[in-house]
Each structure stands twice: as structure tokens, then as C-alpha cells.
């Protein structure tokens, strides 16, 4: 029987000595051992029960403090957290219209849950592959109750506005009488580009969602932060949506460990991503977007097709025990795109190392 493609990919990736993009995916046993070995004091305490107490409450208070918000609410998924946030603002503003980008996570990756479940309606200030401008928000041709800003805009290339552009964008929403919600799944790594700390950035919005596994390497989960009355309303809707699980301490403990481990190193990752991007740009036919990454993630475009590049990446892992990146997807005629994440394993790579590995990948792809 042929090996399952996902199993092959996991096996080869974890057998590599070096990784350019992403992090190693540990086995379940390794994951459990890592949690058990943590020095977090919460491991010696009691578990949470139906959304309260234990490490869940500790995590909520810690993230609220990091974001400079009065309160934060734990959710099992970011999709649920954002559903609830937009629903709360719709109730408060009396408007079921949300202004957002068509490439936002809600439009592309959530099966339009905000429209089908919450009966909200989206309008687009722009369809360009960039963040919307303040002028586009001010001149939107119909009223809206909430402006959702994804920071960074992942599917457009992990793009961020400048700090002045973000301030103007929020101000434009205020002029329109709208609330502002930040989809900050990757907000953690956005502060170097914006040039401001987390409380200052989050302080622009009425509510902020952050992921606990993207960037931080947790198991799952999300936090929704805002004012105390907003958080109380969010907890009520979390219950209705089925998000108040009996116990969620593994996800909370993993997130607390991720805050300790990854948050302090993110500026270093963001800086090194620029080195990696510049080295990859030297490959024949390569395109980097954005040319200077805004976070520690960016898009790499190479001559396709994607299936040949993906097989070449697996062969590179087999032959040289080097994990390059993946997966590539076909995005344009004769071009395939992959997302590069310069995390801790990439810090050991010099620019010459990056270019050499990319050259080896293209040679394997050409050999078929």
C-alpha cells in the first residue's frame, strides 16, 4: 500500500536536520512530554471547568494585559471568536453590515460563516491585493456597523499598513460611526513593522482577536479581548455557540508556554525574514512578495508547476535532510506560490545557505 502523502510529508520533514521554513511537527508523545516538562506553575494547580479557573483564567488575564485591554475571553477556535465579536458589535450598533477585505480570513477560510450563521453581510472597501485605505473606508457607498482589519492580511502576502495608515484607517471608521475589530491572528509579529508595542496597536480597536497556535506554537485556541462588558457579552455568546468546553487546560498551558518561548524572539524572526527573502530573490525566476517582508512570513513564487516543486521539496528532504518549504500551490500560469515562515530553525541559515538550498530545489524540480 502506498504511503499516505500527509504521512510521508510529516515523516520526511521531521527527519530533516535543517529547516528553512516553519517548525518541526513533534509526535503526540513528544508534545505531551513537552507540556509535562514545562516549569509553568499552573501545571501544579487545578484544571479549568466550563471556561473558568485554572490556566484558562491565567491565560485570559495575561493576554488582556499584553494587549492593554480590560478583559479577554478564551475560545476554542478563532472562527468562533470572530463570529462572536462581529455578532456583539452588530447587536450594539444596530447594523448587520461588516466592512472587510475580500481576502480576509472570514471571506476565504471560514465558509462564509459570518453570513450563514450570524446573518451578517460583508461589504468591501477595496478588492485590490493590499490593505484598504482610509479614503476607501470614508467613501464606502453604504453604511456599515463594524470595520474588520486583518493584521497582517495573510492571503495578500502578510501585508501590513504603516502606523500612520492604520491610524487613518481607524479614524475613517470612527467618522462613519463604526466599531473597529482587529483580526489579529498574527498580531504578535506585526509590532516591528508598525513600530509600536502591542497595547498601543491593540488600543486602536474596540476588540482584538489573537491566535494561540499561529506563531506561538500552541495546540489550538484563540483569545478575544476588549472592554469588560464586551467580554461578558462574548462569554454569553460563546456558550450559545458551543464553545464553553468542560476543560481546555492543554491548549491554555501550551499557549502560556508559547508566550514565554516565542513572543520575545519574534523581532529576531522578523529581522531574519528579510535576510531569507533577499537570498531567495536571487533564485532564477523567483518573485518575493512583499519584496521586504512585513512580518516573519512572506510569499515565494517560483516557476511551476506546484506538484513538481512539492515533489522536489520531498526529495530534497530525503537526499539532504533539509526541509525547504511547502506546500506550493499553482496561482498563476507557470508560477507556483508557497508561504515562507522564518521561525527559530531558520535563524541558523546564512543567506548563502538559503540560496544554495533553493538552487538544489530547482535542480531537483527540473530533473523531474
TrEMBL record:
Q: Which GO terms describe its molecular function?
A: L-allo-threonine aldolase activity
What would be one Pfam family of this protein?
Beta_elim_lyase
* GO BP annotation list: glycine biosynthetic process; L-threonine catabolic process
Origin: domain of life: Bacteria
Q: Does the keyword Cell membrane apply?
A: no
Q: Does the keyword Kinase apply?
A: no
Q: Which residues form the Aromatic amino acid beta-eliminating lyase/threonine aldolase domain?
A: 48-291
Keyword list (alphabetical) reads:
Pyridoxal phosphate
A single Gene Ontology CC annotation of this entry is:
cytosol
Q: Which cofactor does it need?
A: pyridoxal 5'-phosphate
Family matches, as SUPFAM superfamilies? PLP-dependent transferases (SSF53383)
The entry's family comment says:
Belongs to the threonine aldolase family.
Q: Which PANTHER family match?
A: L-THREONINE ALDOLASE, L-THREONINE ALDOLASE-RELATED
Which protein, by its recorded name, is this?
Answer: Threonine aldolase
Amino acid at each position: 500500500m502506498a504511503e499516505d502523502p500527509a504521512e510521508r510529508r510529516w515523516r520526511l520533514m521531521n527527519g530533516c536536520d535543517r529547516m528553512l521554513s516553519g517548525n518541526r511537527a513533534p509526535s503526540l508523545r513528544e508534545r505531551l512530554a513537552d507540556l509535562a516538562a514545562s516549569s509553568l506553575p499552573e501545571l501544579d494547580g487545578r484544571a479549568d471547568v466550563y471556561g473558568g479557573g485554572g490556566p484558562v483564567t491565567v491565560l485570559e488575564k495575561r493576554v488582556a494585559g499584553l494587549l492593554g485591554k480590560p478583559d479577554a475571553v478564551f475560545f476554542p477556535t478563532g472562527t468562533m471568536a470572530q463570529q462572536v465579536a462581529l455578532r456583539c458589535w452588530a447587536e450594539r450598533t444596530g447594523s448587520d453590515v461588516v466592512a472587510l477585505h475580500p481576502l480576509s480570513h472570514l471571506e476565504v477560510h471560514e465558509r462564509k460563516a459570518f453570513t450563514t450563521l450570524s446573518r451578517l453581510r460583508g461589504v468591501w472597501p477595496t478588492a485590490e491585493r493590499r490593505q484598504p485605505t482610509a479614503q476607501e473606508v470614508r467613501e464606502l457607498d453604504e453604511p456599515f456597523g463594524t470595520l474588520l482589519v486583518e493584521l497582517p492580511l495573510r492571503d495578500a502576502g502578510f501585508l501590513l499598513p504603516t502606523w500612520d495608515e492604520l491610524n487613518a484607517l481607524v479614524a475613517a471608521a470612527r467618522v462613519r460611526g463604526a466599531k473597529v475589530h482587529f483580526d489579529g491572528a498574527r498580531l504578535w509579529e506585526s509590532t516591528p513593522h508598525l513600530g509600536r508595542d502591542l497595547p498601543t496597536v491593540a488600543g486602536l480597536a474596540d476588540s482584538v482577536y489573537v491566535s494561540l497556535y499561529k506563531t506561538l506554537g500552541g495546540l489550538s485556541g484563540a483569545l478575544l479581548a476588549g472592554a469588560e462588558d464586551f467580554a461578558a457579552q462574548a462569554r454569553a455568546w460563546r456558550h450559545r455557540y458551543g464553545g464553553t468546553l468542560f476543560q481546555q487546560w492543554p491548549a491554555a498551558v501550551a499557549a502560556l508556554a508559547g508566550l514565554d518561548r516565542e513572543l520575545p524572539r519574534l523581532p529576531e524572526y522578523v529581522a531574519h525574514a528579510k535576510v531569507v527573502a533577499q537570498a531567495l530573490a536571487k533564485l532564477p525566476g523567483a518573485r518575493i512578495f512583499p519584496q521586504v517582508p512585513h512580518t516573519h512570513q512572506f510569499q515565494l513564487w517560483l516557476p511551476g508547476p506546484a506538484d513538481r516543486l512539492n515533489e522536489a521539496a520531498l526529495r530534497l528532504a530525503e537526499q539532504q535532510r533539509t526541509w525547504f518549504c511547502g506546500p506550493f500551490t499553482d496561482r498563476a500560469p507557470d508560477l507556483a506560490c508557497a508561504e515562507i515562515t522564518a521561525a527559530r530553525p531558520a535563524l541558523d541559515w546564512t543567506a548563502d545557505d538559503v540560496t544554495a538550498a533553493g538552487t538544489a530545489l530547482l535542480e531537483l524540480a527540473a530533473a523531474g
